[in-house]
Amino acid sequence: MMGVFCFVVALVYCIHVISSSEPIIDIRFLEAYDTGVALINTGDYSAAAQKLEQSLVYNPTSVSAIQLLGILKYKLGSVDESLLYLDKAIELDTYTDLGIAANYVEVLRGAGHVVRAQQEGRKAVLHIGSECKRECVGLLYNLAVVENVLNQSNEAIQLLFQVVSHDSMLLKGWSLLSELLMKRSPAEAEIQLLRAVALHPNDSTLHFMLGTSLQFQGKLNLALEAYLKAEQLDGDNYSLKGNIAATYQSLGRVEEAVKYYQIAVPNSPEDAGLYNNYGALLGIMGKDEEQIAWLEKALELNPYLRPALINLAGYYQDEGDLDKAREFIRRSASPKAFSHSIEVARSSVPLLKLREGLMLSPVVHSWAQMHAERRNMTIALRQIAQEIRSIEASTDNASCPAMSLRHALSPRQIEILKMGGIINQIRASRSG
User: Fold this and answer.
1) Do residues 336 and 389 touch, judged by C-beta distance below 8 A?
2) Orientation angle between helical segments 306-318 and 288-301, nearest 10 degrees
3) Which end of the chain is less congested by CB atoms within 10 angstroms, N or C?
4) For 96-125, what is each residue's pLDDT tens digit?
5) Do 427 and 308 have their domain in common?
6) How far is Cα 427 from Cα 423, in angstroms, rounded to an integer?
7) By residue range, what is the domain housing residue 421?
8) Could you tell me the sign of the dihedral formed by the alpha carbons of 36, 38, 41, 44, in that order?
9) Is 421 within a domain?
10) What Cα–Cα distance (Å) separates residue 170 from each residue in 30, 32, 199?
11) Residue 1 lies in a domain
12) What local confidence, expressed as pLDDT, does residue 334 receive?
């Protein structure tokens, strides 16, 4: 809805009161129209709509008045009326005014008519053809949003490249482009984000996203630099502080990590991934009881958070409690846990919150208890590897574009799934 609001403001200042194709019918039209526009500036949308409706009595084919009424009705919650007015504006204008087309796509999407918004947006772009330049940025951006909603990310990315090409200062264009590229390739996202932060050096979100793209690629020192720059610009972003803590943790800088966790955790009551990472760090520090408490809190918020499940499995395996270890490994490999990891990988959330699949406690790499059963390891590893390949094959398909299970599972997590298979194999051989 904010997109529509921006267009209202733009139209108030940019629109011609009467286009050359509109005959002057009555001075009363001008008076009512001008009053309606003035009321829009004051924020009295209801009174503005009444005046614009009055203006149409004197000039029923004024595209300017009809379009503004469509936008105002949408803002006032009258979606059906809004679409009636915008349908009429499109009929009279036939995509000559790109602002009308942009607003039409935005209102259709906001009203839940996403497929129709895609159809109308594509029709408008096709009608404009190669002449589409800076004046069609609003239409291209709104259509890109629709394409993304419909999981047509490649189409959305192509549109957004045009958006930032025509208007390099449009911040939201860079943000959405970078977000979508992050899902496809963090390296691609990094390239565009470096361009974006050069143009918008004071935008904390862009620096935040740049740090995320770098962290995905394992460029931890550069990621930390970007995160700290973002923090300078937005010191109250606790999600950002959580990522800074996780980066320090990955770099082995425990004291700095603890400092940031102690700030982020109390201010992030719904962040299961943050609780998991903090628990993993406490495990590194040998604070087992606190580690377990935070991991369990993470699972209270999200029972299918795989890193927390795996960390608990590793802890109990290290303690020699293979029954509990197997329980948590089994839960981590459940369809619901896999489904959650895939959903996280496809959503925009992990672009700024890497913590969903980031930290695993070092105890999960304790294999001492397994070495005595080495004769079973080869069989178990072969079986688990086959299962993982099968799962990857089932998720790498058309229903999950540009996404594979490798985005949802880290190499360490795959090793832990292997460990789960070994545990099961050992117990099966013992019971036999």
Assistant:
1) no
2) 150
3) C
4) 778 888 999 999 999 899 999 999 999 999
5) yes
6) 6
7) 295-432
8) negative
9) yes
10) 34, 34, 10
11) no
12) 78
pTM reported for the whole predicted model: 0.71
| Domain presence at residue 335 | yes
Q: What tens digit of pLDDT does each residue of 366-375 get?
A: 322 333 333 3
252 and 371 in a single domain? The answer is no
Average pLDDT, the chain: 78
Q: Which residues of 200-215 are buried (b: 16+ CB within 10 A; e: fewer)?
A: beebbbbbbbbbbbbb
| Residue 137 φ/ψ, nearest 5 degrees | -60, -45
Same-domain pairing of 334 and 204: no
Angle in degrees, 0-180, between the axes of helices 238-250 and 272-284, rounded to the nearest 10? 30
Using CA atoms, how far apart are residues 383 and 232, in angstroms rounded to an integer?
49
Asked, for residue 95, whether it belongs to a domain, the answer is no
Question: Can you say whether residue 45 is alpha, beta or left, with left for phi > 0 and alpha for psi between -120 and 50 degrees?
Answer: alpha
CA 76 – CA 282 distance, rounded (Å) = 51
* Residues making up the chain, counted from first to last: 432
> Could you identify the residue written with the tokens 């080869």?
378
- Concatenated DSSP letters of 395-413: HSSTTSTT--GGGTS-HHH
Our count of domains for the chain comes to: 2
